Write a sequence for this structure.
């Protein structure tokens, strides 16, 4: 046992986490879902995932950049076991307390049903021992895995990911395959993978991970280096076309609907990314521009809108809405030009709320419909037909088109003169000003560009849903867009897309469900935790932009440079003495 | 020879029109005109015998002031943390909510066994202690887990973290307590009745709010100016590094700051619950934002300013909609209460960015 205090602390953290997930009813709710027949339930996977993870970490020991961790499966298993036992001990104390005192009056989830699940159905005295034992085994399993060789760990990782993926995304697989005989072979009739199909999927994933290790990189390089007209190039283009055609022919309604939601958030994320990621202005009222876009389209196109009722077509209304959003960007941007970063955050948040409150108020009800919202917003007219949310497989192409525009704008802006002045301003406003950058111009440009991109999203949203209410535009949406940008990686275009897929696609957006419907109740909790975790451990995001991550890790880079220098010093001295 | 200093006359600064400044002046003037026209309209309405009566206005002022005092109590926490660490602790509103939610358990249990009505003051004091302790613990834990590792990171990072903490705490409490609102037992004994002060009947809980807010304020003032920890706190706010060199334990002082701010939020949490009687997991969000507004209004980092800002903000959002917007002839003004509060923040930052009583910040945070 290398570092007992560290292991004990990990065990305590794991125990608290497990108790907390139980206390908020997560385990109980998730256990309604069977992942693999007959006994691998989703709640238990979450519950025991914690000690497995902690076992892994405890086997690695305290993070130490100077030493590589020693991979010893026996020592790892022992330290994992200890961490797991601690976790089990803490959790079982919690379960015992819940079992002894009746607290359902205040904490509705701390009820006998939860105790039953946490003790694996064995009841209190025996079940607690079972719980401690199981978490101990889970922890030592984690530690044991840590001690394995690279290829084995990779295999285990891939197998776990694929089995869990197939089990969790059963709905999607159903939606895509739609061939009952095949599905019957994979899934049990009541949901969940069949045991042997889980084994097969895991084994195939393991085998493939060994077979294709490192080959994907080579393939990517091959494509990048290929001649313009070579076969590989054409193959890639063909693949791209096939992927683009997927929504039309292969994907079902549910998946398309979900993809549209994801695309909206990619669009909003790209817009906010310009403001937050490029220009470094924390805008917490970004949803206001989304609202301007949506309400603009609604009022201008719907036959049922109030005082202002021109009934334009969507395409005519779009430029007007864009101009309105740009104007809104200027109006919001100008007063906050000289404010400190954090004042800016709270003022923009206030703006967002003011817009929502005004839209909802009786005062402006004649124009915006107040609590009734605006109804009967027509779809997007397109060569004689009208495309709206009723046929998501067509609508998605419009959203993708605008996502492409936004991505192109971001991509071109980043390297341009404006983009570079944003970067300079973000890093140090005074220095940027001193080098002749007009920060006023740069800031306003960021606000206006961001606002226009958000108005695209709003315009599409209004045409898609047909009816809009103010509750689609509350603070929560701003925050969720921010989480998407931050989790993906501030300043990184692919990062925003990944962030939107992971968060909106899997966990769900503010009003929409993601692939994991079970998470709907807890998604905001997870968003909050994720935001904190990312800021603490990986502030540059999942797919970081190179420049941004350098800024954020400046200190570490300096340290590394110093260490390198130290090494050089050492060598010099050695040379001098010899 | 001696190089003579340039003797050219400084050219008179020519007036150059600047769009940004022009726009800001436009907002300032427009806001002033709107306020003046609105108030005149209200006065005319009053003379014409429409709108609220004098007694109604008086009650409105009293209840707005008591709400404002609670904003002030919460604002103290924002102000102290901003003074010491230089970032907005978004999660402070949730610290306040935590106090009132856990206080709810204590209050309900006391109510059920009859102690609540039998010994009203002891019961309220007990719940107050519980609620203060909870808020303090939550504030300190949040500091330890989320903010301490970020001491030297770029400015926006702790701010974004605190947004995450805020959401995490909200939905953690939603998960623990359920999403339904919980109703506090009715204010016990004399607190539930009207007290007559200077011939004006005031609801007992509001008097309690006044008294407790004043006592807490005096206590805090004593703590900050007269005790060793308070002095350490001011030193750290002035300059962390130098304070550290002078032998002050900076980390400990920061924890103390969070703890004191949390305790004040806990006090506000219980008072809020006694006054409005309904708490849920979102109780903290809006009051938190408004308390921050109050802190900015009074001058961030300035503790008397925070209290003054709180009271003023309470008055703005309580009286403002009726007085100004009502005078402008806008219907259903009470819906616009929150909008008025945010507009107040915005106008303060345009008219006097350093707040009414001036900011008190460390050298690195001034901008």
């Amino acid at each position: 046992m290398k570092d007992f205090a560290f292991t004990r602390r990990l065990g305590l953290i794991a125990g608290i986490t497990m108790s907390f997930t139980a206390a908020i009813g997560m385990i109980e709710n998730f256990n309604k879902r069977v992942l693999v027949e007959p006994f691998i339930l989703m709640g238990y996977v979450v519950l025991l995932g914690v000690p497995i993870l902690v076992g892994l970490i405890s086997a690695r020991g305290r993070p130490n950049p100077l030493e590589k961790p020693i991979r010893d499966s026996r020592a790892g298993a022992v330290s994992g076991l200890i961490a797991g036992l601690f976790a089990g001990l803490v959790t079982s104390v919690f379960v015992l307390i819940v079992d002894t005192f009746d607290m359902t009056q205040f904490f509705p989830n701390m009820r006998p049903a939860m105790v039953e699940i946490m003790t694996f159905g064995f009841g209190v005295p025996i079940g607690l021992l079972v719980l401690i034992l199981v978490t101990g085994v889970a922890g030592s399993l984690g530690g044991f895995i840590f001690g394995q060789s690279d290829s084995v760990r990779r295999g285990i990782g891939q197998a776990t990911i694929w089995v869990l993926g197939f089990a969790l995304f059963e709905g999607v697989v159903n939606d895509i395959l739609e061939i009952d005989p095949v599905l019957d072979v994979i899934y049990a009739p009541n949901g969940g993978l069949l045991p042997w199909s889980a084994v097969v999927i895991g084994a195939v994933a393991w085998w493939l991970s060994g077979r294709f290790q490192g080959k994907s990189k080579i393939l990517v390089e091959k494509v990048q280096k290929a001649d313009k007209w070579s076969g590989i190039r054409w193959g890639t283009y063909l693949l791209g076309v096939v992927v683009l055609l997927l929504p039309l022919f292969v994907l079902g309604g549910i998946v398309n609907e979900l993809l549209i939601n994801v695309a909206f958030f990619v669009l909003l994320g790209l817009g906010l990314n310009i403001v937050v990621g490029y220009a470094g202005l924390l805008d917490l009222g970004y949803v206001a521009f989304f609202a301007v876009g949506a309400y603009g389209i609604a009022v201008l196109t719907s036959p049922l809108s109030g005082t202002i009722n021109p009934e334009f077509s969507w395409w005519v209304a779009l430029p007007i809405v864009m101009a309105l959003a740009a104007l809104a960007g200027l109006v919001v941007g100008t007063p906050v030009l000289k404010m400190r970063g954090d004042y800016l955050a709270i003022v923009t948040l206030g703006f967002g709320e003011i817009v929502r409150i005004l839209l909802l108020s009786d005062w402006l009800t004649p124009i915006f419909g107040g609590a009734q919202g605006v109804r009967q917003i027509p779809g997007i007219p397109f060569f004689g037909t009208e495309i709206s949310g009723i046929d998501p497989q067509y609508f998605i192409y419009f959203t993708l088109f605008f996502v492409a525009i936004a991505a192109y704008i971001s991509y071109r802006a980043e390297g341009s003169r404006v983009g570079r002045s944003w970067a300079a301003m973000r890093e140090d406003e005074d220095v940027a000003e001193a080098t002749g950058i007009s920060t006023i111009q740069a800031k306003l440009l960021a606000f206006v560009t961001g606002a226009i991109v958000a108005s695209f999203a709003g315009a599409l949203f209004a045409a898609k849903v047909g009816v809009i209410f103010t509750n689609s535009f509350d603070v929560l949406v701003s925050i969720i867009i921010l989480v998407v940008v931050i989790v993906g990686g501030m300043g990184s275009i692919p990062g925003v897309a990944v962030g939107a897929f992971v968060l909106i696609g899997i966990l769900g957006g503010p009003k929409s469900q993601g692939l994991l419907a079970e998470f709907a109740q807890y998604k905001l909790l997870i968003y909050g935790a994720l935001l904190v975790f990312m800021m603490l451990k990986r502030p540059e995001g999942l797919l970081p932009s190179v420049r941004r991550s350098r800024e954020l890790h400046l200190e570490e880079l300096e340290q590394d440079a110093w260490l390198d220098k130290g090494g050089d010093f050492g060598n010099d001295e050695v040379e001098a003495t010899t | 020879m001696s190089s003579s200093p340039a003797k050219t006359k400084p050219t008179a600064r020519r007036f150059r029109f600047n769009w940004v400044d022009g726009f800001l002046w436009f907002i300032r003037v427009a806001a002033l005109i709107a306020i003046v026209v609105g108030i005149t309209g209200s006065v005319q309405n009053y003379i014409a015998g429409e709108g609220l009566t004098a007694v109604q206005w008086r009650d409105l002022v009293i209840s707005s002031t008591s709400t404002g005092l609670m904003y002030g109590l919460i604002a103290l926490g924002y102000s102290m943390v901003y003074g010491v660490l230089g970032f907005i602790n978004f999660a402070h509103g949730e610290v306040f909510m935590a106090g009132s939610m856990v206080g709810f358990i204590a209050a309900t249990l006391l109510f059920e066994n009859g102690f609540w009505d039998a010994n009203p003051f002891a019961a309220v004091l007990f719940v107050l202690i519980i609620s203060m302790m909870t808020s303090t613990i939550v504030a300190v834990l949040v500091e330890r887990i989320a903010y301490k590792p970020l001491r030297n990171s770029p400015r926006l990072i702790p701010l974004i973290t605190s947004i995450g903490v805020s959401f995490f705490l909200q939905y953690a409490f939603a998960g623990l307590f359920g999403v339904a609102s919980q109703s506090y037992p009715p204010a016990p004994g004399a607190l539930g009745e009207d007290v007559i002060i200077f011939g004006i009947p005031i609801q007992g809980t509001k008097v309690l709010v006044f008294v407790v807010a004043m006592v807490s304020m005096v206590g805090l003032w004593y703590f900050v100016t007269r005790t060793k920890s308070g002095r350490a706190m001011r030193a750290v706010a002035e300059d962390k590094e130098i304070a550290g060199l002078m032998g002050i334990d900076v980390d400990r002082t920061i924890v103390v700051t969070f703890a004191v701010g949390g305790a004040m939020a806990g006090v506000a949490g219980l008072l809020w619950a006694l006054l409005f009687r309904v708490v849920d997991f979102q109780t903290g969000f809006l009051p938190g934002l408004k308390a921050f507004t109050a802190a900015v209004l009074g001058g961030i980092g300035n503790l008397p300013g925070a209290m003054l800002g709180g009271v003023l903000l309470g008055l703005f959002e309580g009286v403002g909609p009726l007085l100004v917007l009502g005078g402008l002839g806008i219907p259903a003004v009470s819906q616009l209460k929150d909008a008025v509060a945010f507009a107040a923040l915005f106008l303060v930052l345009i008219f006097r960015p350093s707040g009414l009583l001036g900011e008190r910040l460390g050298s690195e945070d001034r901008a």
